[in-house]
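Internal ticket #5521
Category: modeling
Description: The requester needs a full-assembly model to guide mutagenesis choices. All entity lines are attached below as received. Residue total reported by intake: 585.
Assigned to: D.W.
Attached entities:
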Amino acid sequence: MTVLDGARERWVRTGGVELCVAELGDPRQPTVVLVHGYPDSKEVWSEVAARLAGRFHVVLYDVRGHGRSSAPSPLRGGFTLEKLTDDFLAVADAISPDRPVHLVGHDWGSVQSWEFVTVRRTEGRIASFTSMSGPSLDHFGHWINKRLRRPTPRRVGQLLGQGAKSWYVYLLHTPVLPELAWRGPLGKRWPGILERVEKVPGGDYPTASLPSDAAHGAWLYRDNVRPRLRRPREDAHAHAPVQLITPLGDAFLSERLYDDLELWAPRLTRRTLPAKHWVPRTRPDRLADWIAEFVTATEDGRAGTAAKGKHADRFAGQLVLVTGAGNGIGRATAFAFAEAGARVVAVDRDAEAAARTAELSRLIGARAAWAETVDVSDGPAMEKLAARVAAEYGVVDVLVNNAGIGLSGSFFDTTPEDWKKVLDVNLWGVIHGCRLFGRQMAERGQGGHIVNTASAAAFQPSRALPAYGTTKAAVLMLSECLRAELADQGIGVTAICPGLVNTNITATAHFAGADAEEEKRLQRRTARLYGVRNYPPEKVADAVLEAVVHNRPLVPVTPEARGAHLLSRFAPRVLRRLARVRPPM
Ligand SMILES: NC(=O)c1ccc[n+]([C@@H]2O[C@H](COP(=O)([O-])OP(=O)(O)OC[C@H]3O[C@@H](n4cnc5c(N)ncnc54)[C@H](O)[C@@H]3O)[C@@H](O)[C@H]2O)c1
């Protein structure tokens, strides 16, 4: 049985072999060629191909000696990168003679695709290349040489790290042994190993015809690895835009291998994802989204302008939703994600402010940016927002529940209405966000991150902030509980606790017990205090991105917030004394 349902099949003859080629989708659309790795056949791409076929002309072929393609005779010397390039060109000529194709490779499919995209004879035939879990052997050779020539302790560590991950490459170079292993127990156990170790879902279809594919594939290594690593080409520069997708849990390849990649592929877009090696089987949704986006960007001529901001490797192309994005910390956070090339949804109850943030986000570097007007305390409105965002932009990868309001005043001056208002926005707004967008993330099953803006007031009591502090302490505990619940699903949760930050919050904060005139005076006075402290919201935004990258649970941001956090843990009595000090009002 084949899972490439509805695929049209054809055979392409080249260099003494016959290649089995499958096509899906409308041939008038841009062509995406998917090249599989080792030990796989084109069926490894089934889930990705099915998702791309609605928008593109999708082409897959069994590499020579794999799946239903025939093997060269003799095997030795039949799998050189030159011959594999001949095969690719023959397939490209057959399925897309007039237009360059978008190439996608995984594992050895990526290794050979690097060859295709760096040799001169394919120039003009490749529009873009998406690489995952398979480096160029030339780049790899230079990477090793550089570390051997100038072996600093760090470089030696990197060499040893990759060396340990390459144990199977040495094994595959031995004569006969791999063939025997595949014909014996390894061949039988392979699907179970993939399922257990790599978390590849078990399926009723094969991704490789074991043991013959795997035995043939050993020649990919023997014919190419040693000669290329010994004498890597000097001119192995990519002549098309490249998108590099790096699974961070790859047991076979170190992320460090790609450190210098911009030298070889100047039009580079980097993406990382928390996954193991077999991403075409484990993360087809994510890959299909990224491939589609990159192909479309290349067709529109945008792929060369890859995001350059800090953490672009992590956030480029990701969907990030920020509430309270019209001003202050939310706006700075939206901009920081925009700079990293994310797709940004700026949410605020102030429509004009949200629109401005979206517009500027696009100018700063967001792949796309939209404004949405909603009051986060309004449950039904938030439900509608969540449904609209999912339908129009997709499932959010990073959610920042930031919208909040200030409320100051003694406990007895704080009216039930004051309590309700601050709880509705500061706590219920966060609950709605987590409940609605968090559920979508969890159901998608591809991880994500939720950031909730709490405050130093969450752990630092104060006689001036009983209601505000209560909402923020609740946000902190909600974040901790949710973090525990979502950990297994690869969704991180962070509570950000800023401290005094110079934003407009002082101008809109309510001072319980004060009449209108007195409130204005107190707002101006607090604004001056925040102005003197002058801690910029951009630094909080940086802390948000760092927290997501490193999956931090709790981040006190300003030095005084960090100090208060330490005191709350090691000297809470001191904080309790400070809490009794009357605010300078
Ligand atoms: N500025 C600080 O010193 C400080 C310190 C600790 C925590 N915080 C927290 O940081 C977050 C952002 O505060 P800021 O300082 O950037 O404030 P800000 O007033 O500058 O910005 C808040 C934004 O949220 C929006 N907003 C308010 N209520 C909303 C609602 N119900 N629905 C949708 N949007 C709403 C506002 O329109 C505004 O654009 C808040 O949760 C605040 O409690 C701020």
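Resolution: model delivered.
Comment from assignee: The radius of gyration is 28 Å.
Ticket closed.
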